[in-house]
Amino acid sequence: MEWCVSMPKVELHAHLNGSIRDSTLLDLTEGLIGTGVIDISEVEHIIKKYNRSVAEVFKLFDLIHILTTDHNTVTRITKEVWLLGCHVVEDFASDNVVYLELRTTPKRNDSAGMSKRSYVEAVLKGLRSITSVDVDFIPHCADSKSLFTPLPGIGHVRKRIYVRLLLSIDRRETAEAAMETVKLALEMKPFGVIGIDLSGHPCIGDWTTYLPALKFAREQGLYVTLHCGEVPNSKEIKNMLDFRPQRIGHACHLEDEHWRQLKSSKIPVEICLTSNIRTLTIRSIHVHHFELYTKIYPGIHLKNIFSEPDDLVDAGDLYKAKHPIVLCTDDSGVFSTSLSKEYKFAADSFGRFHFTFAASNLN
Ligand SMILES: CNc1ncnc2c1ncn2[C@@H]1O[C@H](COP(=O)(O)O)[C@@H](O)[C@H]1O
Ligand SMILES: [Zn+2]
């Protein structure tokens, strides 16, 4: 494990509100006691549960959103979001993540005067205010200095971490709200926003709602990554692969034709092992598409062990196929993981694999 921690790593799939530390979550909860906004007894039950279904995980996200953005004033929300951004980046830096792409869904709270824009500004300011680690946040742009003051120098002892931001579209949003997010991302490009993600409850909504916004994002030079195949949905998976995003996340429920399409397209896959196992999206690590058990132990058929259908035996084995993949945390707070733990999990589960794949296999 120490080796996994000490190795410099790249994190490409981390949701800001999913990466919140337990202690921060509890601080935020305490801050809302007596306000009538939440019922503590109900909150505790959700927070303390270990294995959660996809539906329960999304219940927890609703709760986290209340904790971070359901306040009366935009100043209070800014403070919470700011704090959250600081802690999350510090945690990744202490795990020796050297390049971090953090994604978050811009949120509106009209009653507090909070807009998607002020939410993103709060995140950016939070990231800029970190002094414990040396954050390289803004891509080379002179104008950026007008918005943020430079960080104070504390010599060479601070760890350096490159942070870039992706703005997420939630599958519950309207097409207009998605377009607003894309335009905001374009506006915030000089300040470190580099792309768009499509996420949210995988059983909700129709992704084609967001196609105009996603196409516009791509035309304007933003990178696009999609949560794809987290649950079975053959038509959606095919259409998403046809769209040819820069990357996809999860890719758990691809069928044979999808695997073929994915492999020939070489679209890199963000692999989230713990997330997939904890949400039961994948039944066992031995049938995970990172590398199939049958390929490690030839001759042993999955259907004999797990009563899986025949076609699973021929499903994805992305590592073996040298497909571009990268290990990611998804929601390190919600799933009590870290990027080092994901590397350790992969090493323990799949044995002899080489760590160099993470950076070198990516486009
Ligand atoms: C477990 N697998 C997942 N599948 C799909 N979407 C997920 C997710 N995990 C997180 N999110 C998305 O990220 C939001 C939290 O971070 P932000 O508020 O954006 O910072 C969640 O509400 C959800 O929309
Ligand atoms: Zn995700």
TrEMBL record:
In terms of superkingdom, the source organism counts as Eukaryota
Keywords, comma-separated and alphabetical: Hydrolase, Metal-binding, Nucleotide metabolism, Zinc
Q: Does the keyword Nuclease apply?
A: no
InterPro entries named in the record? A_deaminase_dom, Ado/ade_deaminase, Metal_Hydrolase
Catalysed reactions, semicolon-separated: N(6)-methyl-AMP + H2O + H(+) = IMP + methylamine
All copies of the Adenosine deaminase domain together span 8-291
What name goes with this protein?
A: Adenosine deaminase domain-containing protein
Q: Which organism encodes this protein?
A: Sphenostylis stenocarpa
